[in-house]
Amino acid sequence: MKQLKHYGKVLLLFLGSSILLSLLLSILNYFGIFVGKTSQIILIIYMLIITFYIGYSSGKLALKNGYLKGLKIGGILILTLIFLNMIFFWSPLTIYRVLYYLIILIISIVSAMIGINRKTNGS
């Protein structure tokens, strides 16, 4: 039950912050502040940062096997992104998108391993 609650918080944080940032970037793009690829780059960087944060915090909560916790979290985030892509955009799966999902998975795994190591060192 505790893990289910944690995964719910992770999804809420991920979805809520992503939607808010997307809306903010859309508004700034509308007014000509961020035009073209700039908003996409900001969104990608943000997604990588939030993935690291979520993986790190999940790793700190894990008792052992941080890489498995990171794999679970990364899988949940990727499935959420694929689901949202199917609903709102429906663009075909390209090699760039697969690479993006792979990077998210790797960052989630590494950050969870860092998080579990930080916890056991007493920090």
Characterise the protein shown here.
The chain is an all-alpha fold. The two termini are 26 Å apart. The protein has four helices and no strands. α2 (37-61) packs antiparallel against α3 (66-89), α2 (37-61) packs parallel to α4 and α3 (66-89) runs antiparallel to α4. The protein has helices spanning 2-30, 37-61, 66-89, 95-120. The protein is elongated and about 45 Å long. 85% of the residues lie in helices and 0% in strands.
Distance between the termini: 26 Å
Low-confidence stretches: none
Structural class: mainly alpha
| Main sheet specs | none
Strand content: under 5%
Quick gist of this model?
By secondary structure, the chain is mainly alpha-helical. Helix content is 85%, strand content 0%. It is built from 4 helices and no strands.
What's the layout of helices and strands?
Blueprint (H helix, E strand, L loop, with lengths): L1 H29 L6 H25 L4 H24 L5 H26 L3
Helix pairs in contact: 1-2, 1-3, 2-3, 2-4, 3-4
Which characteristics define this entry?
single chain, elongated, 4 helices, 123 residues, mainly alpha
